[in-house]
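Q: Two folds, back to back.
A: First:
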Amino acid sequence: MFGVLFPNRSFPLGISTFNQVDEHRWLLDMNYFVGEAYDQVKEMCVFLLNEMVLPAGKSLAVYVQAPGSQFEYRGAVHSACPSAVFPLLWPGATSGPMLLTGPGAPGASAQIGISVEDLATLPSLNVGHQKRVEEIALKVGENLFNFMQSFGTTQGGKLIVPMDILNQWFKKFQEKARRDPDYLNRFTM
């Protein structure tokens, strides 16, 4: 029905690598796959093996669960989009008591869940991609703030910086990106 690939970490893996929970759900225990280093696995490619595997209107939804957290949706593949690479962005452990038990409850190990679901009920936005964009924006903003702080002074709880500081930062940012092709990629780690 489907296969997965962890870019730069695995060969294509078939459905038999997953434990089948029921007719429409599968789980991959990341402890079995990579041990406790699950958070080093940053993305995953999911692909349908042929166009006849899913009925019309159905999709394979991808979820991730870190130890002590709930499953979080990361995206889906379907007949119109038969493969996709999803940033996994492992969730943090929840604070407070864990009330759920059984499938979907917080687990002791990281897991990836794949489920056959109605395409119409899933968010149209790739949640993993949206979170990655938010993280990158936050890191770029931090970079700007640190740059401004190094040239500024504080006065009455406010940061006072030279008027051309944004231009200076942007030129330096562009220079680093041109000189080092990996510079922008480090914002995604």
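A: Second:
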Amino acid sequence: MKWSPRVQTPLVWGGHLLAATAFAWPLFAPAVPTEAQGAVPFVALALAPLAAVTLVFVLDGSVRSAKVLALLGTLTAVGAAVRVVGTGVGGIEAVFVLLILAGRAYGARFGFLLGVFVILLSSTLQGGFGPWTPFQMFACGWVGAGAGLLPRLRGPRAKLAEIAMLAGYGVLASYAFGLVMNFWYWPFAVGTGAGISYEPGATLGENLGSFLLYSLITSTASWDTLRAITTVIGLAVAGPAVLAALRRAKLPRDALR
């Protein structure tokens, strides 16, 4: 189905906004009347898959080339295989290398779809579906999309500078991925009364401070740092060759719009 820009743009932004709201539900819960606060987490868990379905439906409907579909399917299979092999090994997400390079080569829309479908397929292969799956779909989709939004570089050393830029982005994306994935789950992960607990009645600053301390202890200093290191190494070693190979498979100008 072909969507007009007037319809597609609000749906796309609306889907991302719904997803961001679902991730950040602990920030909104205190503003909800006390008698309804217990329902906020369940609303957030419902918003994430709804937003994922909306965006995939809209964006997939805008894919206008069989070549794009074939390439998306091939890279999804590769990414899912990489993720299945590497998942659970100390926070390593080798699939970030593929998402960043594909997003850079083919644009934000392709990178987002690739991230979503890689999580969907790898979760199917592993039987690992759960309330976290839609959140992972969005987080990985945003990793791929972000690479497609980075500025174009020109000059005699553009290729080297591009890999350095992607490596820097890979570090930021690795830590951001850990933060957003921690955020929605944080209130469930820690009981009340601890210094890193979520407190519904606390101020925004107090809860953000507790959350950052929780993330630092549980993932930022360990899992996320290892993810950042392996992403940088993967981009430095395989980035130039893989990026060149991806760009040789040129896509029609209107293949994704």
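Q: And?
A: The mean pLDDT is 82.
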